[in-house]
């Protein structure tokens, strides 16, 4: 049997993208297992969220310069049906900073998270607290996250023990908006530091570049939830600097991937809220929550909803903390998910 060529980190080769279509693409080797059974690859010209471990049988070890040249010419001539690199995710980074950022975060440290009843495949590296993961640790296959307290657990058993003691089933801060089963909580990063930091750690798993991990004090977080008999379930959030040179400055907007089908329904309500908390003298283009990355820090927001919207959709007078969930309602079981709800 012919021995495969030895591949090194940094090598570019062809790899099988879609086996059913015999579709080969150029990849850069980012990491590999010592026994060469698995390779962590970046699909060249594609967003880093698609980086993944692939088996050796999907690698063309006989890739030549001619094969790579032919593939590149084909892409240049015909383009591609998939989304290429999203450089907006790195807005404001210089070339040296971008290089350092990519080197430090080149390999995902968590493959999936369990968040409520969903198991979600992550897209990017996240600099988790050291007690959960540190440089040199192996990849966490599944990280268990309490959807109410946003605390992290390495095992399902730890999460289940935590859930048995759980009494609070809503974010910290004040509920400032409610429309049907959708609520928004305003949370001061200085007053709920750990909760907001953990929210940013989760967000970083789906955003390629985000600077809020530790310094959350200067920000207000507006967390969108869906409410049912089990409690208030986080759908997404946007954050806003408390003090800004601009009249209004959104720092980050994210809808969690497992809820992206609901974005259209929630978008209009969020847009109305953004308009209500922004200065009335700040006109501007519409702003929409992102499902796959941050917007470029818009300096102001305008309503997407007519001012004659139903009065039930306006924030309730004053800031109100919701009542705690009925104590007779048992905590959502970490194992009680519907496999059909898994988000890939």
TrEMBL record:
Q: Which family does it belong to?
A: Belongs to the MYST (SAS/MOZ) family.
Q: Which residues form a coiled coil?
A: none
**Keywords linked to the UniProt accession:** Chromatin regulator, Metal-binding, Nucleus, Transferase, Zinc, Zinc-finger
The segment(s) forming the MYST-type HAT domain are 105-344
Q: State the name under which the record lists this protein.
A: Histone acetyltransferase
Cross-referenced InterPro entries: Acyl_CoA_acyltransferase, Chromo-like_dom_sf, HAT_MYST-type, MYST_HAT, Tudor-knot, Zf-MYST
Q: Where in the cell is it found?
A: Nucleus
- What reaction is this protein's catalytic activity? L-lysyl-[protein] + acetyl-CoA = N(6)-acetyl-L-lysyl-[protein] + CoA + H(+)
Q: What class of enzyme is it?
A: transferase
Example GO biological process term?
A: regulation of transcription by RNA polymerase II
Which molecular-function annotations from GO does this UniProt entry contain? chromatin binding; histone acetyltransferase activity; transcription coregulator activity; zinc ion binding
Q: Where is this region: Disordered?
A: 276-344
Main location per UniProt? nucleus
According to its UniProt record, the EC number is 2.3.1.48
Species assigned in the record: Hemiselmis tepida
| Entry's Gene Ontology cellular component terms | chromatin; nucleus
